[in-house]
Amino acid sequence: MTHPTELTIAGARRALAAREISAAELTQAHLDAIAALNPRLNAYITVTPELAAAQAAEADAALARGEAGPLAGIPLAIKDLFCTAGTRTTAGSRILGDFVPPYESTVTGNLLRDGAVFLGKANLDEFAMGSSNTSSAFGAAENPWKRQGDDTALVPGGSSGGSAAAVAARLALGATATDTGGSIRQPAAFCGVSGIKPTYGRCSRFGIVAYASSLDQAGPVARTVEDCAILLGSMAGFDPRDSTSADVAVPDFAAAVARGVKGLRIGIPREYRVEGLSPEIDALWRQGMDWLRAEGATLVDISLPHTKYALPTYYIVAPAEASTNLARYDGVRFGLRENGEDLKDLYERTRAAGFGDEVKRRILIGTYVLSAGYYDAYYVKAQQVRALIKRDFDQAWAQVDAILTPATPTAAFGRDENQDDPVAMYLNDVFTITANLAGIPGMSVPAGLDGKGLPLGLQVLGRPFDEETVFAVGGAIERAAGFHALPALRAAA
């Protein structure tokens, strides 16, 4: 039989149903892998072996009774931004380093309802602010992939770097993640796995530590497109506790993966041919077009003219919302508390000690653009441009069913590369940010390797609440690409 950590979620479900493996055995194999590799990769901040073993035992009992849920016995990593009742939730920050929530996020609650096993909490950029997973207060996560002939530590992408690294290194069958400007799709591309940011409102944000509330959206990272569809089917759903949750039906996403692209119109936005795009990624993009054309899709040249304003718009809107959301961390109600001579001094000492440099940078930017005299010039203007970006997509859907773009401008970079240039780091999200600003679904699918043996991803964008078409196109790319390359550092190696 295939090594337990090499199974896909779909394969593991079949093996569990056929009694070829128990949930306890599957879970223990992953816990052993975490013990062996996590000290190097730092993909997990907190590992929960006792909880995982207990949940696996419950899953085995449910399987024996014939009452198993759709994820019974499936071991997952949970991004440490989702509140988990009784298990530490840090958001990658010192200010929440000892915070143990008394309640469960809706997304993780849905997964538990369906029988999933939680292996632990995955590493992330502090408060999900970053593109490299190097700003975590608990140390950087490492990408399990290596350049050929080079042992340089590479970043797994951010902010969901721990989730993507854990899945790629076979330390989990799948993982939860969040995406504010590309934080599911960019790490998925860097680590050679699949990841989807669903439509804004598809998954509840209740119990997820907020970064930028109008942009944040939960989604899955997994080894295959089908596995992402299976996970999203459990994660999604209406939640009356979240005012932004959409009251729409959750379709059978997994069924859409195999339906093909014949007759679909696929948009190719000319504005995504940006300066600095790797020639290898451009070549892969063209290859992706050829794959879809060969499968019966029609390619349509489209224009998204306001794309060039997406990065500056995002880096006004997101920090503004972050400065408001992070005002709650004051040392009074929960989290870190540094004593001060008076209330103001307590605030200053607590926030200075609790927040890292990147979080402080974004709070300062956000507070500035919301301040008197600058609110209209920056924040209001950015929201107006955001509306134009969304309008570009709305007009494009009259011509096309989905859009194909690169996922990232480059492959994964070294941990010590680009770190002293925030603007260069922000450019990593140039292809992904528009989907967050417009609230549409976007998926990254591994489709090839660069000249140094590192994975590259293609991105599929879709209409709001039409994740089924995104999965159909993603599935077609996955089948055509036949991506089976493996990272150097992985559990079954």
UniProtKB/TrEMBL annotation:
Enzyme class at the top of the EC tree: ligase
SUPFAM superfamilies cross-referenced by the UniProt entry: Amidase signature (AS) enzymes (SSF75304)
Residues at the catalytic site: 79 (charge relay system), 159 (charge relay system), 183 (acyl-ester intermediate)
EC number, UniProt record: 6.3.5.7
GO CC term, one of those recorded: glutamyl-tRNA(Gln) amidotransferase complex
Keyword ATP-binding: yes
Protein's job: Allows the formation of correctly charged Gln-tRNA(Gln) through the transamidation of misacylated Glu-tRNA(Gln) in organisms which lack glutaminyl-tRNA synthetase. The reaction takes place in the presence of glutamine and ATP through an activated gamma-phospho-Glu-tRNA(Gln).
Protein name (Swiss-Prot/TrEMBL): Glutamyl-tRNA(Gln) amidotransferase subunit A
Originating species: Teichococcus aestuarii
Lineage, uppermost ranks: Bacteria, Pseudomonadati, Pseudomonadota, Alphaproteobacteria, Acetobacterales
